[in-house]
Amino acid sequence: MPSLSERVAAAKAAEASSFGGARAEALTELRGRLHFKVVEELGPTLYDRQMSDAELRLRVIEMLEWALDQEQGLPLTAADQKQLLNEIASDVLGYGPIDPLLNDPEVTEVMVNGPYDVYIERNGKIEKTDVRFVDQVHLRRIIDKIVGQVGRRVDEATPMVDARLPDGSRVNAVIAPLAIGGPFLTIRKFSVDPLTEADLVRFGTLTQRVADFLRACVVGRLNIIISGGTGSGKTTTLNVLSGYLPSDERIVTVEDAAELQLHQDHVLSLEARPANIEGKGQITIRDLVRNTLRMRPDRIVVGEVRGGEALDMLQAMNTGHDGSLTTLHSNSPRDTLSRLETMVLMAGYDLPVRAIREQIASAVDLIVHVSRLRDGTRRITHITEVEGMEGDIITLQDLFLFDFGMGVDEHGRFLGRLKATGIRPTFSERLADFGIKLPPDLFDPEPFARRSDQFSLTR
Asked: Which residues contact 353 (CB under 8 A, 6 or more apart)?
């Protein structure tokens, strides 16, 4: 039986815990009231683009201090007041507790698994943070703010939503009843300074020789598909390859959410639109791909094909719009063709499989496959030519392959790189017609040190 002193200590601990819980609940209610008052009082001022961020934050803090002065009954220390004001200001002006993560240039993805579990991806690795939301209501308020900025909404009728931040970062949110223990929020950050060819070479994603080869393929108007898994770097690679497009051509881009950053002069960017609350007004990727054919494009760049638009993309590639670029989710170059077949069938036409394969073999020239490896790095592992048909099978030929046989270093990082297989592509003559002469030793499987230095890229 516990002694009297032990029972007294236990009673005090229980009383303190009860008091702490009641205080936390009161703080949560106070936070909600202050947040509502600021939004109600400032209203349109919060979206005044003529005010600088510093001026707007000052206005919000002043309003919060005034609103806090009107509150009675909950004593707060000066430190508590300062922390509370800064937290609410971040909620009103930014995205609450995850603001520092979104501003960290090393963080590439933010994953909120409910209000108390926040993970990030840094250097290709996932790690847990000590960031927490107050409760589900707090997290839901931030989600509502994000989706509201782009005219979307999330509720019980539409518990899943895709949106993007003003800087272009991709956002996915799932709420109850679908999200058990949620809401769930995933943000793939948008790079303000997009990675360049030099960055990919420095990271080991590809070699300079391969970069020059891909530049030749883009300038030579080959149809290229960039394939890979989720988060493998497909969009980044597409962005780099799109940078090789000549500036004197008319380029039309089609995306679900605008991410590509092309710096050519003649670029027209189209973005899909979801249905409104009444289920009307949806404009799909397929609608946009069809529309591009009426816009006199020299090049068509589709951010990603994931459905029936694959058929329209193949039709465009086969009707004079060569030099098109797109991305596609798959596990290998061969799987890329299988997925293309499946997506063409999703267009709703009862086409024979052989006819679909002939369309693919005629349209697609090159597959660039990107993988996120076990060490967290993103590497191009296959550059594969689509040669044509043999019977009912589309024939592929690997031109460059990643050499996994070189092993890993003491930190577990792969030492391999892309190496030529020794096969020269059949489209070499086509490139020559564009004044692009591939060095005869480019596809020599010997070490790069023995190869010639530069391409002859004359047009």
From this structure: 341, 392
Instruction: Determine the topology of domain 95-192 in CATH.
Output: Beta-Lactamase (3.30.450)
- For the stretch 114-168, pLDDT in tens is 999 999 998 878 899 998 887 888 888 888 888 887 777 888 888 988 887 877 7
Structural domain boundaries in the chain:
1-93, 95-192, 197-457
CATH architecture of the domain 197-457 equals 3-Layer(aba) Sandwich (3.40)
Q: Are 295 and 288 in contact (CB under 8 A)?
A: no
What dihedral do alpha carbons 45, 193, 257, 186 form, nearest 10°? -80
State the Cα–Cα distance between residues 255 and 303, nearest whole angstrom: 5
- Say if CB 360 and CB 394 are below 8 A apart: yes
pTM: 0.77
Backbone φ, ψ for residue 107 (5° rounding)? -85, 125
Q: Which residue do the tokens 């005629």 mark?
A: 362
pLDDT of res. 344: 93
Q: How many CB atoms lie within 10 A of CB 332?
A: 17
Residues in Cβ contact with 400 at an 8 Å cutoff, skipping those fewer than 6 apart: 210, 213, 380, 382, 383, 418, 419, 420, 421
Give residue 4's pLDDT band: very low, low, confident or very high (50, 70, 90).
Answer: very low
Would the pLDDT of 8 be above 50?
Answer: no
Q: Give CA torsion, residues 201, 187, 306, 152, to 10 deg.
A: -140
Q: Sorting pLDDT into bands at 50, 70 and 90, what band is 259?
A: confident
- 122 neighbors 108 (Cβ within 8 angstroms): yes
Least confident of 106-110, 213-217, 301-305, 412-416: 412-416
